């Protein structure tokens, strides 16, 4: 899934000062009852302010596929399984389900039993048919943008069009009110990690508003939507029917969460750094701006409220193989990109190490290799030689980036590098709040596209098949993740082989070969293995570094009084 900075570039030419932002937001501290946070126990009451550069792509659980949106959804909806991250490593646990599920028939059938007494915001009980209906929403053309796993794995998914025409998917059965069974068309040993994603949640049919559900998500989590004005503000308030006794993951410490959208990314950084007024009880979900990162990462005064979260993911440049058809030209791009200036745009070494593979260290299947320049600054001579072998073309290419200052600097770095080898680059900035819904639509093809990807769970099966299975392009024309438009039979065959392998070592070896083949195709330029850095005010406690989403998790958050 994606995790990105999302604020409209050029919407502000000058960053607001910290004091100006404080005036704009008001300098009122949090209210509510006093807590005992000074002794280490969570404070109760008050309002947590969340400062985001732009609105979420989606909050509809079947449509959300960004880490910011997924992290926010954890406060509103509950999934069949989830991650307990209070320990040293994430632990998969039952969430709506009583446990992590039971596989049978060679992991082609998975059964989950729901907890009794989980309540929606109106006090009605969550049932297995509600979860079935929620998952069936994945298949509707009106509900697009989410992950592809349901369509890939559930028997009959290829021809199913969703529940809005009154039809059900036979491969999801509910033998009783608290039992749900999924029938898969292939063995999936880690299916219960898939079900920790937001889409594997309950949606009550009576409250489903279809494509407008983003602003009307019906809560069974600790918080419910009080008000939502797109691109301006989302306010969550307590779901009084939520019970801690049925929830092994979340707490309900603050009275409200006030999410405010649309400020300049550097203004948010400076406001939280200043730690005055509302900023004291504020946190950010989008990473620190590249222009601020080096300074803030090295500031000892911020250490206790600075979160550096290693991401199981990759920052990359996709090369559209259907538009840039000459392999030599694509290889020249691989050699020409100066990763030092690219990484500088995102904040320098604090942002992450230089990447040479699409699988990042720590993900099952990662294999260390480098097919192109050993110098991260590139190899201009080799790039020019490859262009010569291609007949010295002088093409003009478009590059899609978000319209943020960080992305603007990144695009300029790419443009400068490629124009040195005769490739002219036109920068196409896209409104950050709509970036992925734009580039993932096959009607919008660019020669070069910036992307980043966080593994849906720490396994190569959630990276390479999603990003490079060319057969999914036609299946998901409005939610295509293959930004390279790569449809290599060798890669597709390796994807199928790996899916059938039950031996983890063999499967990981197949993913390692797959990674190498993708780089041989010069379909992408891996840029950096990412860290994400965020800050909070000094009055925020209980933040858990979420290494699955690379987000500051809010499931135990509280404000100090």
TrEMBL record:
Transmembrane segments: none annotated. Residues 1-29 form the signal peptide. Gene3D superfamilies: Dipeptide-binding Protein, Domain 3, Periplasmic binding protein-like II. Keywords: Signal. The keyword Signal applies. Residues 91-470 form the Solute-binding protein family domain. This is ABC transporter substrate-binding protein. The lineage of its organism: Bacteria, Bacillati, Actinomycetota, Actinomycetes, Kitasatosporales. PANTHER family: ABC TRANSPORTER SUBSTRATE-BINDING PROTEIN (PTHR30290:SF83), PERIPLASMIC BINDING COMPONENT OF ABC TRANSPORTER (PTHR30290). It comes from the Bacteria. It comes from Streptomyces dubilierae. InterPro entries: Peptide/Ni-bd, SBP_5, SBP_5_dom.
